[in-house]
Amino acid sequence: MKFLKTTAKNIRRSPYQATAAIMIMTLTFLVVSFFAFLTFGSSQIIGFFESKPQVTAFFKDDAKQDDINSLKTKLADTQKVSSVKFVSKQQALEIYRQQNKDDPLLLDLVTADVLPASFEISAVKLEDLTQVSDMLKKSEIVSDVIYQKDVVSALTTWTNAVRKIGIGLIALFSVVSIFIMATIIGMKISQKKEDIEIMRLIGATPWYVRLPFITEGVFYAVFGAVIGWLIASSVLFWATPFLESFLKGIPVLPVSIVALLYLLGLEVLFAVILGIISSFIAVLRYLK
Fold first, then answer.
1. Domain of 124?
2. pTM for the structure as a whole
3. 116: nearest Cα among 95, 132, 100, 139
4. Which of 129, 147, 165 is the last residue of a domain?
5. Which residues, 6+ apart, have CB-to-CB distance to 274 below 8 Å?
């Protein structure tokens, strides 16, 4: 189409302005990609911890099985618990033996009667752990409750902070990129005032004049999004071995190619929207 040729000509004639527009969009989508990775990773980590026993309640030696079953029913009725696993004294002994199989002396000193039966509990949400823990502590058949409150609270707080900071930075960079892009395209429109007037005199419609500039803005945004995604994905692949070692046992990495391509698709869509908005602002301001 002719407007695409006009767009390509506009880009070739002002390479420095084109480079500046692509760079600001690259920076914007680099931030978008990194915080998308952080958000995905933190969600996976929380999901991992939510799937594991997060509270352990040890029962008194005189606790009756009927009372234990009743407590299990009460926990289920709160709808805040995703799973409750009962570990008997004999099962606790088997776990102890497995953990200390290389130390025969410790194995000889411990019998099933010494170890307490327990519940291993997972909550639906990490935020519900405090309430579940408090409920267990009030039970007369529970002797002790182990709940790593500080670890869970720190993880939840960190995740929420990452999401808020990410949303704030993405919004800030998006607004800045829109205004910079609008300024760059506005400068191009100003430089082509005479050509635009001639086009209008020979009968060109308003959209025929505007469309090349809008297409140009979309091109800058999409090209910047692809570059930003490529840089972020390359950094992620490079850092994956180190992160896997640090997150040993937590199945977060590697991120699948399908997930990365899905992110690219979303970023390209977002880029098209940003490109249209910034170009339209420039067109409305400079082409009245």
1. 55-147
2. 0.66
3. 95
4. 147
5. 25, 28, 174, 177, 178, 181, 221
